Amino acid sequence: MDEQVLRSLIKWPNVPDCFGWLALDRRGQWRMRDEFAQQNQLPGQVITHTALNEFISRNYACDSLGRYFFQNGPQRVFVTLDATPWIVRITPSESGLELLTQCNTAIEANGAFSDESGNIYILGKLKRLTYKERNVDQFCTEDRETVALLHDHDLDHFSRLATLHEEACSFGGSWYWQGKQLPLDPIHSEELATRFQFIAKPVNQEF
Question: Does the global pTM surpass 0.85?
């Protein structure tokens, strides 16, 4: 997290939280949702400003309730998730390929899921910024197991890594990644939030 953000939290500790104005879409794009977008259930405008995208990504965190937010100086801006808290791409690197989230953090994959619509979700560990309500330091970085939706542009690539067999409502099997054969299991999309403890549409809630 940016040092200036931490300083602003100390200086202005009681700024009200913001809900509904920021979203993360299924392609890993941050979207600004004004009152009109919220009232009409619209996705909002994609944020294209590079520095702002990087600022949001550096200050993206999760609280103990599973609500993800962007710490915008002293104000916490909670994020509406179209799918999962993380959207991942298969990305070339010096050592071959890696899985990078919208925040440019790497996921150490240990499995994957496919849902009833053919979406692929990567299961693995990443370094996540977490807000600790009862901790004096408040924010800490920790390794956490999580799930990330694979960007739809990478589905063809993933299919070349996978061996599939048809299930009743989805597909299962295995996939080959960084020298390992990893499981690919079926899951229903409605199970994701509960199983991986995140809230897709955060609301104001007292601790």
Answer: yes
